[in-house]
């Protein structure tokens, strides 16, 4: 049902982005893929998408002018603009006891302010073009459940969820631009990979709190669901964590 749709993906070269882009390409979507710098991950995605309808665009998607430029280019070059997926964020791995106001400001910029700005600008363009569409933003289970040590990351990701609900309210109606949020748990792709390598979440497996770690393909299924043009849902957050936050109190 997404065949022929044009989708802008920010943070495309990360672990989650690679799988999402591959599945969108398999559905013959036209893709504009935003990345921050040319590196091994970028080269890997370009190779993986060889022959697909994919254009790569390097920019800082945390800067308002560069976000606006990317969105303008997307709408200028695509015949069927439809969706925005913004995976960009920052784990804000700092000692919360030592953190300063500047650390919170930086976390908000990368995890809430910039993603919400991109969603706002995209939605406004869709509305002005009288087009239905879908925006998918990324929070985290730490933006839903108060994990210790996550003052900077968790707070900014919680703000993202609330902001997305406000935008969903603004962009409802006709045309219908849906805004929804995915809040992943511990996945073997993306930001959680480093924490898995350090053993931070091993206890959840050992004590059967969760049956396994999540994967990029798990999250991709949720994203494709949220992009479905027939979806009758907006302003919602899907917590996709294998039950970790629900069962966390059972840890021995």
Describe the structure.
It is a single chain. This protein is α/β, with parallel strands linked by helices and 252 residues long. It has one domain: NAD(P)-binding Rossmann-like Domain (Rossmann fold), CATH 3.40.50.720. The protein is 44% helix and 16% strand. It contains nine helices and seven strands, in the order βαβαβαβαβαβαααβα. A seven-stranded parallel sheet has the order 3-2-1-4-5-6-7, with helices on both faces. Helix 5 (151-170) links the parallel strand 5 (133-138) and strand 6. Helix 3 (64-77) runs parallel beside helix 4 (101-128). The chain starts with 5 loop residues before the first strand and ends in a 5-residue tail after the last helix. The model has no long low-confidence stretch (mean pLDDT 95).
| Corresponding CATH architecture | 3-Layer(aba) Sandwich
CATH homology group: NAD(P)-binding Rossmann-like Domain
Distance between the termini: 46 Å
- Describe the strand arrangement of the main beta sheet, using strand numbers: 3-2-1-4-5-6-7
Overall structural class, as computed from helix and strand content, comes to alpha/beta
Oligomer: single chain
Beta strand count: 7
Overall spatial form = globular
**Total domain count:** 1
Task: Give the class-level CATH name.
Answer: Alpha Beta
What's the pLDDT, averaged over the residues?
95
Number of helical segments with 4 or more residues: 9
Helix content: 40-55%
Order of helices and strands: EHEHEHEHEHEHHHEH
Which stretches of 5+ consecutive residues score pLDDT under 50? none
| Fraction of residues in β-strands | 15-25%
Largest sheet: 7 strands, parallel
CATH topology: Rossmann fold
Radius of gyration: 18 Å
